[in-house]
Amino acid sequence: MSAFVTAQAADSLEQTLGSAQLRAGTGEAAVSLDAEDGRYTIALQRVVYVKRFARDTRVGFGASS
Question: What is the rounded distance in angstroms from the CA atom of residue 17 to the CA atom of residue 28?
Answer without folding.
Answer: 10
